[in-house]
Amino acid sequence: xLWQRTLTSDDRLFWFALATGGLVVAAFYVCTLLALLTTxxxxxxxxxxxxLGRMALTNYLTxxxxxxxxxxxxxxxxxxxxxxxxxxAAILTTQWMWSTLWLRRFTQGPxxxxxxxxxxxxxxxxxxxRTEQGALGAEDRLRRVR
Length: 146
What we know:
The chain is an all-alpha fold and 146 residues long. The protein has 8 helices and no strands.
């Protein structure tokens, strides 16, 4: 980020610095999460992130649509880093709540279901059977999808 601040957008190295900074930050996030998964809070992290991971394709596609709608719909060609963080936090929080509620009734996200239907060439079940809804925990439902 310090290197990026020394450059202007018309500088030859600006976009390289931007891409490099993004990769370094992403690597930091991944390494931090992997380190946290070796601690006592592992089960809590898995419980928190499981709904997002089980609906990763759906969340990726909806986040893309939301960001494009926000940026183009509101004509925000240039936004601050603080605004980016707020928008990302709002989208992530909304997706986590929606994923958690969705997975109470369904085995997988809608786009995951469509993807499996297309790749398996047969329609997989999507609804959790009523008798299983109360009896199965989240991990059992996840194993059933696999």
